[in-house]
TrEMBL record:
Coiled coil: none annotated. GO terms for molecular function: DNA binding. Gene3D superfamilies: Winged helix-like DNA-binding domain superfamily/Winged helix DNA-binding domain. CDD domains: HTH_ARSR. This is DNA-binding PadR family transcriptional regulator.
């Protein structure tokens, strides 16, 4: 089980440290956290807004309307708490660094697993295509040789397209992992997209 990013009560103090830099909208707070974690951790609105509300209730944060948005700002009492807990905040910063490394390792593991599955699926699809081409070649009549040649050309084109996709996506994914910016959303989009493509291709093969 993956340990929590923040220990109990630490997110509250970390939010105060973010607001000490500048007042922010709720969504800007979420973006600031995402940036601090290099995209490996993106808290939900359901995580952030209740804590901001509690900070306001405790007098550590104030809020003001800015058009249709709400801006949160640290109060003098909030700055006093930050000052009193400066040592604790340093420890939280160290913990954030460790969490970024751990989350990046988890992302790499997920990507490696997804890439292994992708390679297995591509290899399986290529084998099936070759098998079907061989079966079709054995059953085609002698006077239908042009069709057989066309099928082989189509198979070759399909395999080239598969390999080009694999090589291009592999390079892009590895680049993102190296930069520590590969998100769960990207992995999910890749997995869902491949499942959709596979279903569509299998549908055409079944016609």
């Amino acid at each position: 089980m993956t340990p929590p990013v923040f220990a109990h009560g630490h997110l509250r103090l970390y939010l105060l440290s973010l607001l000490a830099d500048a007042p922010m909208h709720g969504y800007e707070v979420i973006q600031a956290l995402e940036e601090r974690f290099g995209g490996t951790y993106v808290p939900s609105a359901g995580t952030i807004y209740p804590r901001l509300a509690k900070l306001e209730e405790d007098g550590l944060v104030s809020k003001a309307a800015d058009g249709r948005k709400t801006v949160y700002a640290i109060t003098d009492a909030g700055r006093a708490e930050l000052l009193a807990r400066a040592g604790e905040l340093d420890g939280i910063e160290d913990g954030v660094t460790d969490s970024v490394r751990r989350l990046a390792d988890d992302v790499r593991s997920s990507v490696n697993s997804a890439m292994k599955t992708l390679r297995a699926d591509l290899a399986s699809a290529a084998r099936e295509a070759r098998t079907e081409a061989k079966v079709a070649g054995r059953t085609i009549r002698a006077d239908a040789k042009p069709v057989q040649v066309e099928n082989r050309n189509q198979l070759a084109n399909a395999e080239v397209a598969i390999n080009e996709f694999r090589l291009e996506m592999r390079a892009k994914l590895r680049k993102q992992v190296t930069g520590g910016q590969l998100s769960d959303e990207t992995v999910a989009a890749l997995t869902a997209g491949l499942a959709e493509v596979r279903a569509r291709v299998e549908e055409t093969l079944g016609r």
